[in-house]
Structure formats: C-alpha cells, structure tokens
Amino acid sequence: MIEDFLEHVLGGRTTEVEEAVRKAAAAEIMPRFRQLAADDIVEKNGPHDLVTVADRAAEEHLTASLTALLPGSVVVGEEAVHADPTVYEALRGDAPVWIVDPVDGTRQFVHGDPGFCTLVALAHRGEVLASWTFAPALEEFAVAVRGRGATLNGQAIQSGSPTSGEVLEVATSHPDYTTPDQKRALLGLNVEGIRPRPCGSAGLEYLAVARGALAGTAFSWEYAWDHAAGLLLVAEAGGATTTIAGEPFRIAGGNALPFTTARDSATAERIRTLLGGA
Description:
Layout: H1 2-10, H2 15-29, E1 41-43, E2 50-52, H3 53-69, E3 74-77, H4 78-83, E4 97-104, H5 106-110, E5 117-124, E6 127-135, E7 140-145, E8 149-152, E9 155-156, E10 168-172, H6 180-187, E11 194-198, H7 202-210, E12 216-219, H8 224-236, E13 240-243, E14 259-262, H9 265-274
Parallel strand pairs: 3-4, 10-11, 10-12
Antiparallel strand pairs: 1-2, 4-5, 5-6, 6-7, 7-8, 8-9, 12-14, 13-14
C-alpha cells in the first residue's frame, strides 16, 4: 500500500492530497479569517509566535485526512510537536511522513493579512518527495513532485536567474529568532547589491523564489514544517539550497545555520559566502 501510494504521488497524481488541503482550509481556516476573537489566539513563545484555533483545527483535519490517504504514514505537525516534541523523531524513522504547517504565517493571519498559507510535504527516509503550498486568501496553489517539476495553479514555474546587476532582495529570519552568531552572519547581507528584509510567511517566500519574484532567503531556524514544502518547490523550479557549511539542508535537523535558498546556484553561493560560509 505504501509503495503504491508513493509511486502514485511520484507519478504526478496528487489530486487527492490537493483536495484534502483545500477541504481543510475551507472548513477550518477561511471561516475564521478576520473573524478571530481575542481568546482564539494564544502566544506560544512570545508575541511573534502565535497559535490560533484555526491552526489547531486545520492540523487535526489534515492529520485525519492525510493518514487516511496513506495508511501506515505518520504526521509531523507544528502543533503536535509543540504539544509533544518527541513527535519530531518520526522524521528519522522508516514510515512515510506528512510534514504539516496548518497556517504558515499565523501572525499575518491574525492581523487579517492574506499572506499566509498551508504547507504539506510528503517525506520518506529523509527525502521530500512531494509538496503542496496553498494560499487560500490569495487563491494560489503550488505543487512540486520530485523529478516532475513545480506548478502554480496548474502552470509550470521556473525560478530562472536574476538579471546581471540586479539588486538581490533576500528574505531573512526575524531577529527575535536568531542567536548572536546568526545575527552577525545575517549582517553580512548588508552590502551593495543586496537588499535584505524580514521574512513573512516562509512558505510564501519560498514560492516567491520558485516563481522568480525573490532572489533568495537566509533563514536561521530549521523546523521541517516551515521548510520542507518550499525547499522541494524551489528545487523543482530550478533553484538551489545550501547551508552555511556548503552542505545540503537535512529536514531532520542538525544543519549548520543560517542556510539559503535562491533562484540559482550562483545566487545561493553568493548569499552563503556573505553569511560567512567558507
């Protein structure tokens, strides 16, 4: 059953997962958009790390629907890991793993900003096989399948390369979530020809890179639910990713940080070098 489903997904037939993501957003997220009461919102680790009833309900909805599609699979979701950090260990196991961020960009969602999305990735033994990025308020749905390319609303997308001499806009980690060493590394982007700015929804920043609207990212945290979907999306659109140590990013963790994802390998290497990479 597992092998058949993985072959099904890698064959590009992802309609059932797309439908599950759309249903979760329609049932649990969009009815609460711009309708949240004060007690629907909770701070987890400070004012920039919020969770809402929509996050929790959507993750529960997706956990049920995705594991039903693939019996024997497990879910690593942001809210489940917050409740029980040992859930994250499933990324190192043998079972197929659905990696879920029910509302990526919760701060935007809380403020009534449409710049949020739902992220789902399917991984097996540390390799991301497929990903789904759905921004329901923007009516954008991106899908990537390993070896099959990336699409946005059904149309193929390519990251391309920045124009020669173009100022490179780079989305970076919020300062509240960086160590002193990481802050110093990110300061390396304050040079001519680079325009760093704080990131919004990580999933939508990855989508911007994949569609050629953003030069790259420089992130200093490694939670798989924020990155797995976008990393595959950018890779299948022709982009590149590297950690500050010049190594591939590992979704199970243990990466040298910060790391970068960019429209092409030359841009990724330039950003990595500015971050202090050898």
